[in-house]
Design goal:
With 344 residues, this protein is an alpha+beta fold. The protein contains 9 helices and 10 strands. The protein has a domain of 85 residues: Roll (Pdz3 Domain), CATH 2.30.42. The radius of gyration is 23 Å and the shape is globular.
């Protein structure tokens, strides 16, 4: 059951991403040759009009294959025959639809479960926050001058900033804003903490649900970039990364751990995990790397700046090399996932 739920969630997120490419390709008059879910050999396919709709053997990934996408084609309905702006919109639509999906899912999560504004619930006696004079009910607005909205941003800051225990905290109390320096103290997890907790989620009215749904997407995008910075800095390694197998396993674990708390908790936790996944997919695809959407967008932006297109065949080779490297990376990460599952 848990594997089925995981595959449904994974497939939905991929379909939405590819549908973004598909819909904008159609809007721009581009011929879509195949729209598929999964990778590898086709196990089911049906052709309607000019497009073949397929389900592949491996339930990871998907594609929207457009005419002349990776080569030079003179067909007026080919991808490369369209303007730079049209091609940009088609490529950008995939990640953008992931962010739209994250927002829609957040509407349900915030509407049903409430939001987590950065409001202090309790202050641990003897903690850095206690010594700095922070009190329950204070709303934290900035950490070291950077704006925050969600309580989880405090935890994210603590995890990502372990070099200096001191942090400037700006907060609002009874309508008055003030800033104090908090000397964070170490925790068992290996990083500094403020010494505060949030006691509950806050139910929101209609406008509050809209606001915090946008902020939820913002938080997920921010946490993804922070995680990338954490990886690039060397504080994390490839062994800490998860691929499709690991993600399916985590979704299954989330489902099983939520069962004892009731159906609503199961739904909210799975939706929250889906928000994280779809936002992550959107961000990762926008990275300016060959074979990813961001790599294709980079070539289009270069074309716009120089006023001349890079040879489509050479660009195709670059993306092909990038795809091979990406597949190798996926195999490595998948090996790590399987090892972690076996080791428990």
């Amino acid at each position: 059951m848990k594997i089925l739920i995981a595959l449904i969630i994974f497939s939905l997120i991929i379909i939405i991403h590819e549908f973004g490419h598909f819909s904008f390709a159609k809007l721009n008059g581009i011929c879509v040759e195949e729209f598929s879910l999964g990778l590898g050999p086709t196990i089911f396919g049906v052709k309607k009009g000019e497009t073949k709709y397929s389900i592949k053997l491996l339930p990871f990934g998907g594609s929207c294959m457009m005419l002349g996408e990776d080569g030079d084609s003179t067909d007026p309905r080919s991808f490369n025959s369209k303007s730079a702006l049209a091609r940009f919109s088609v490529i950008f639509a995939g990640p953008f639809f992931n962010f739209v999906l994250a927002f829609i899912l957040a509407l349900f999560v915030i509407g049903l479960g409430g939001a987590d504004p950065a409001v202090i619930g309790t202050v641990e006696e003897g903690s850095g926050a206690y010594e700095a004079g922070l009190e329950p009910g204070d709303r934290i607005t900035h950490l070291d001058g950077k704006r925050i909205y969600n309580y989880r941003e405090i935890s994210l800051y603590n995890m990502m900033n372990a070099q200096n225990p001191d942090v400037e905290v700006t907060y609002v109390r009874n309508g008055q804003k003030d800033t104090v320096t908090v000397h964070r103290k170490s925790a068992e997890e290996g990083y500094y903490i403020l010494g505060i907790t949030m006691t509950k989620d806050y139910k929101q009215n209609f406008l509050g649900v809209i606001k915090y749904s946008f902020l939820e997407v913002r938080y997920q995008i921010k946490s993804t970039f922070s995680s990338l910075a954490y990886l690039i800095s060397g504080r994390a390694s490839l062994n800490d990364m998860s691929g499709p197998v690991g993600i399916v396993n985590m979704i299954g674990d989330t489902y099983e751990e939520s069962l004892s708390y009731g159906v609503l908790t199961v739904v909210l936790n799975l939706l929250s995990f889906s928000i994280l996944l779809t936002a992550n997919l959107g961000v990762m695809n926008l990275l300016p790397l060959p074979a990813l959407d961001g790599g294709r967008i980079l070539f289009i932006l270069i074309e716009m700046i120089r006023g001349k297109r890079i040879d489509p065949e050479k660009e195709g080779i670059v993306h092909l090399v990038g795809l091979v490297m990406l597949l190798v990376l996926m195999v490595i990460i998948m090996g790590n996932d399987i090892r972690h599952i076996i080791q428990g």
